[in-house]
Design a protein that fits this description.
7-stranded mixed beta sheet
Length: about 240
């Protein structure tokens, strides 16, 4: 366990040996979600952690994006004081905001940060604030991720639904991380950054990757062939 600045205990695991890489999961992710990334990387010590409110980590209130940035900083301190960081989806946006805030990140890799996305429900924030965990899941998966109704109905009947409900309260946290959903001012961020997207993902995700990389002083893009938003890195 790692203790964040506000006293929150964070569950952290690591595998491998070599330079440190910290993985940051996205919405509905816990540290198990980044396990395939850790398994695919050799020659590195790869750290995965449960973001606050997920898995075995604590959830000190009130929530603030600044506290999540402090959480990532605490994990990086545990990793040796500086580290490369890989962020998935909204976890990539969190990693980007942490780098802009001055957290000692030596290199960034961001997989499909969902910035400049097509407009979602205009009342999403208000509905999410008052939703039960099950309602929050249905709102996020059905109206934000645009999961087909039949697939959502099937998921409700699957064993994973209860596990997702346990994490669903943190959808509010990812919503705060996303802020207005626009690409932030990254003109002063010189950290080498690779923005990745899958060739099987919607066109706007690849467009966002290219736009963000162009806005970064030291940004590049890379495409993962035949991958969707749920990338299988073992197959890349």
């Amino acid at each position: 366990m790692v203790t964040s600045k506000d006293g929150t205990l964070l569950a952290v695991g690591s595998v491998g040996a070599g330079p440190a890489v910290v993985c940051v999961g996205g919405a509905l992710n816990d540290r198990g979600s980044t396990a395939p990334v850790a398994a695919a990387m050799t020659g590195f010590t790869v750290y995965s952690y449960d973001r606050r409110g997920r898995g075995d980590s604590g959830d000190t209130q009130p929530y603030a994006v600044a506290r999540e940035i402090e959480d990532l900083a605490a994990v990086i301190e545990e990793a040796g004081g500086s580290a490369m960081v890989y962020g998935m989806s909204s976890g990539g946006v969190l990693a980007l905001r942490a780098a802009v805030a001055g957290v000692p990140i030596t290199r960034l890799a961001l997989y499909e940060p969902p910035l400049d996305a097509p407009a979602g429900p205009p009342d999403y924030t208000a509905r999410l604030a008052s939703a039960t965990p099950a309602e929050a899941l249905e709102l996020f998966l059905g109206e934000v991720m645009r999961m087909p109704p039949e697939a959502l109905a099937g998921m409700r009947q699957s064993p994973m639904w209860l596990a997702l409900e346990a994490v669903a309260p943190t959808l509010r946290y990812d919503n705060e991380v996303m802020a207005d959903g626009r690409i932030p001012d990254v003109s002063g961020l010189t950290t080498p950054t690779t923005v990745l997207a899958g060739t099987a993902s919607p066109d706007w995700m690849r467009e966002t990757a290219a736009t963000l990389a162009k806005a970064l002083p030291n940004g590049t893009t890379a495409l993962l062939q035949n991958q969707t938003h749920n990338a299988n890195l073992r197959g890349c």
